[in-house]
Design brief:
Blueprint (H helix, E strand, L loop, with lengths): L2 H13 L1 E4 L1 H7 L7 H7 L2 H10 L2 E9 L2 E9 L5 H9 L3 E6 L14 H6 L3 H8 L9 H13 L4
Antiparallel strand pairs: 1-3, 2-3, 2-4
Helix pairs in contact: 1-4, 2-3, 7-8
Length: about 160
C-alpha cells in the first residue's frame, strides 16, 4: 500500500475528510514521507482515483497553507461545516467548493502564479486582480487583492 493511499484512508477514517495537497499532507503526517519532495512526487493521478473511490463528496480548496497559498482537492463523508472542521482540526483557513468530479491538474507552465500576479506592475493584471471579489476571512488571496487595489489606487 502506498503512502498516499495510507494517508487518504487514515485521514478519512480519523477526521471524515482528507486534504490532498503535499505541503498540508506532509505537515499532518510527516511519518509517511521522509521529505516534502517525496510527498510531492507521490501526489500523482492515482491519488485522485483512490479518493474518488473512497469519498462520496469531493471538493476543491484554496487558502493559506503551512507554506503559503495552496490549492488542492479533497474528499469527505459530509460537507457539513467542512471549512470549520478543517480550521478546528488543523488551524488552516481554506475555502472549499463541492465538485462533481475532481479537475485534472494543469501543467505547471499553464498555471499563473498568484504571487507573480500580485507583484506585477502591469495595470491590466492589477485591475483584474483588484476586481475580484474580496474574501471575508483573512487569507493570502485577500491580501493579494488588497495589495492590487492599493497599487491601482482603488477602493479597499
Amino acid at each position: 500500500m502506498s503512502s498516499t493511499q495510507v494517508y487518504v484512508d487514515q485521514q478519512l477514517g480519523a477526521t471524515g475528510f482528507v486534504l490532498c495537497e503535499p505541503s498540508i499532507a506532509f505537515q499532518i503526517r510527516p511519518d509517511l514521507w521522509s521529505v516534502l519532495a517525496n510527498c510531492r512526487t507521490d501526489f500523482g493521478p492515482e491519488v485522485r482515483k483512490i479518493l474518488a473511490n473512497r469519498a462520496p463528496v469531493l471538493f476543491t480548496f484554496e487558502g493559506d497553507g503551512p507554506q503559503g497559498y495552496v490549492q488542492g482537492y479533497g474528499g469527505c463523508f459530509s460537507q457539513r461545516r467542512l471549512e470549520d472542521r478543517i480550521l478546528e482540526l488543523y488551524g488552516i483557513e481554506l475555502t472549499a467548493k463541492i465538485v462533481e468530479s475532481l479537475p485534472m491538474p494543469q501543467a505547471p507552465n499553464q498555471q499563473a502564479s498568484s504571487v507573480l500576479i500580485a507583484q506585477s506592475d502591469d495595470p491590466q493584471v492589477l485591475r483584474a486582480l483588484a476586481a475580484e471579489e474580496l474574501p471575508t476571512h483573512e487569507c493570502h488571496k485577500r491580501r493579494e487583492i488588497l495589495s492590487a487595489r492599493q497599487k491601482i489606487g482603488g477602493v479597499q
